[in-house]
Amino acid sequence: MRNRIIAVCGLVVLAFVLGTRAGRVQVKSRESVGHQVVRLWDAPRSRRRRRKAATRAAKKAKKALRDFRG
């Protein structure tokens, strides 16, 4: 029983350490964070996602308005 508790605690600590390292933002040495944000905003994939999200939101708003008006 004691060995199982130690093993589970070890796994929890390992998962915590790996999880905190995986969530860190990788900043290139010569690139500012502001420049990275601009680069991300201008990326084709993010543009497509923003366009899809805007279209989806517009459809839901129209549907909500229709339902509200009855």
Summarize the structure.
This protein is mainly α.
Task: Please count the helical segments.
Answer: 3
Rg, Å, rounded: 23 Å
Give the CA-CA distance, first to last residue: 63 Å
Q: Flag low-confidence runs.
A: none
Write structural notes for this entry.
The protein starts with a helix and ends with a helix. The chain has three helices and no strands. It is 81% helix and 0% strand. With 70 residues, it is mainly α. The model has no long low-confidence stretch (mean pLDDT 87). The chain has helices spanning 2-22, 33-42, 44-69. It has a domain at 44-70. The radius of gyration is 23 Å and the shape is flat.
Features:
70 residues, flat, mainly alpha, 3 helices
Secondary-structure blueprint:
Elements: H1 2-22, H2 33-42, H3 44-69
